[in-house]
Design brief:
mainly alpha
């Protein structure tokens, strides 16, 4: 897979990497190929557990010829974040090919926004995410 990604035109590399990661995450989660996960959705929000996270890490190790940390899904909790990390650190693509990580200010703002949510809003959000996952899995 690494060779395939590196031989892809630079303007198409990231989208190919994201598509590959979506397929691998779907396989790990046991999702139908027609229901690929969103690149910005959190792995654990998708229903991934720690064993699935290790399975994903091992698949990526093998496909990319790398030794990724066991905490990969915790440190890089979305397909998009994982793609950016792999592009920079593993595949060593040039900066213009990989978007910069969110700024410290943006991260702090996101955390402040999360802190503003009350318990009812969090419960509603979790319930909505669970409904979406159940719909993807075909459970009613």
């Amino acid at each position: 897979m690494r060779e395939s990604l590196n031989s892809t035109a630079s303007e198409q590399r990231r989208s190919k990497l994201v598509a590959y990661l979506q397929q691998e995450v779907a396989r790990v989660l046991g999702l139908d190929a027609s229901h690929l996960p969103k690149a910005e959705q959190g792995f654990f929000d998708m229903g991934m557990d720690s064993m699935m996270a290790l399975d994903l890490k091992e698949r990526l190790d093998k496909a990319l010829g790398a030794s990724l940390p066991a905490t990969l899904a915790l440190e890089l909790p979305t397909i998009s974040a994982l793609a950016d990390h792999l592009a920079r650190e593993v595949l060593q693509w040039q900066d213009q090919e990989v978007p910069s990580p969110p700024s410290k200010v943006a991260q702090e703002q996101a955390m402040a926004d999360l802190a503003q949510l009350d318990e009812a809003e969090v419960e509603t959000s979790i319930a909505r995410e669970l409904e979406e996952l159940e719909a993807l899995l075909g459970k009613d």
